[in-house]
Design goal:
Structural class: alpha/beta
Oligomer: single chain
Helix content: 40-55%
Shape: globular
CATH topology of the largest domain: Rossmann fold
Number of domains: 2
Order of helices and strands: EHEHEHEEHHHHHHH
CATH architecture of the largest domain: 3-Layer(aba) Sandwich
CATH class of the largest domain: Alpha Beta
Radius of gyration: 17 Å
Length: about 220
């Protein structure tokens, strides 16, 4: 029998917290990896975020700690952000930041993850599921969703400008879009495996979590 592995995931807010609780943790538990979300309530200051991560690593010396933050909302002082080249691909940008963050925390038990470009990007894995949930009590916007999705090879590439971020697109199409309740419901309908198939960086993260081993 595989040893039990404890994993804390520091998350940005309630939608990520619910996602970990309802979608990611049940899947990881099948591999004896028990994930618990730890919401920080926003990441406007990197110094506060770093304190959360360092405290989590210090409190439990036999567990792992990961993160789930939106690339779109990272503070300017986040490690590696001042050395980002505009010529990098979206995946190269987040890997650069994750590596810089890992180097600053300097712990073998720390697995940083930054979501491209934000949580709502995952929803665009299946625009039919988006419309099935959000069109209840609202007008269908499937044609507009299709136009958006067809512009990008993967959901993770949907860009990060204020006007065109995935959450802003959904809010513009569906009045009073609720990120926590409706966003997570859409992801539950899509399922973890389809998210992994469509979103390569997300898949890399989940794969890394699945292959964690018991620490000394």
């Amino acid at each position: 029998m595989n040893p039990i592995i404890r994993l804390t995931i520091v998350v940005e807010g309630r939608s990520e917290e619910t996602f970990v609780d309802d979608v990611l943790a049940p899947a990881l538990s099948e591999k004896m990896i028990f994930a618990t979300p730890w919401p920080v309530g926003g990441i406007s200051k990197y110094s506060t975020l770093r304190k959360f991560v360092e405290l989590g690593i210090k409190q439990d010396k036999e567990s792992y700690l990961s993160t789930m933050f939106d690339f779109y909302a990272l503070p300017k002082t986040f490690p590696g952000k001042n050395s980002l080249s505009p010529n990098l691909s979206p995946w190269e940008k987040v890997r650069h930041l994750e590596n810089a963050f890992a180097n600053e925390i300097n712990s073998a038990r720390f697995i940083p993850y930054i979501q491209l470009h934000e949580f709502e990007g995952l929803l665009f894995t299946d625009i039919n599921q988006i419309d099935a949930v959000l069109a209840v009590g609202r007008e269908s916007q499937l044609k507009e969703l299709m136009k958006i999705r067809n512009q990008f090879q993967t959901p993770e590439e949907i860009n990060d400008r204020y006007e065109t971020a995935p959450s802003r697109r959904l809010s513009n199409l569906y009045q009073k879009y609720q990120k926590v309740t409706e966003g997570v419901r859409i992801i539950e309908q899509i399922g973890l495996e389809r998210l992994r198939q469509a979103c390569p960086h997300f898949h890399e993260w989940v794969t890394r979590l699945e292959t964690l081993v018991k620490t000394d």
